[in-house]
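Lab notebook, bench 4. Still working through the backlog of constructs that have no structural model yet. Next entry is a single chain of 168 residues. Request: give me the structure tokens for it.
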Amino acid sequence: MHSDFITDIEEVRNELLDIKKEINSGKHKLSKISKHLTYYSVVRASGRIEVLFKKILCDRLKLDCGTSHNRIKDFILKEIMDSSSNPKTGIIESYLYKFDPGWKNSFSEKLNGHEHNIKSDLNSLVQLRNDVAHGNNCTATIDTILSYYESGVLVLDILDNVLSDGLS
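Model written out:
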């Protein structure tokens, strides 16, 4: 995975770990601040996964365009990067299918073959974000959010590997 992506992943991971320390410190155990920190963590983790899945896909597609086809590159940026697509695995699969059904099939197989249920975890993180965004209560713990985030990172790694296959 590109080093900028790893830096972005680490930034959010460290932020979530700091929030976990704050929540577990005892100062905010039963206060509303703990609830707000949890809500923020959900949005932050899901948002980073969303941005990175789009960047990984766009970078690969722009590479396919080579040095020409600026209109295609602009279209890709507008249709993918500027869209408001949740990073649910089904949406990622849909994007992949539009460009190459083989990418979608490979991605799906690797997700389904993973030893942990990372697909469900990422979709749960997105659902938590939607719940928070629509004013619904979020009862997930910071540990659950961190776990979902790590699953999302694994999904990104699979996506990156699928799109990198055959580039050499």
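Notes after review: The CA atoms of residues 37 and 163 lie 35 Å apart. The mean pLDDT is 88. Flag for follow-up if needed.
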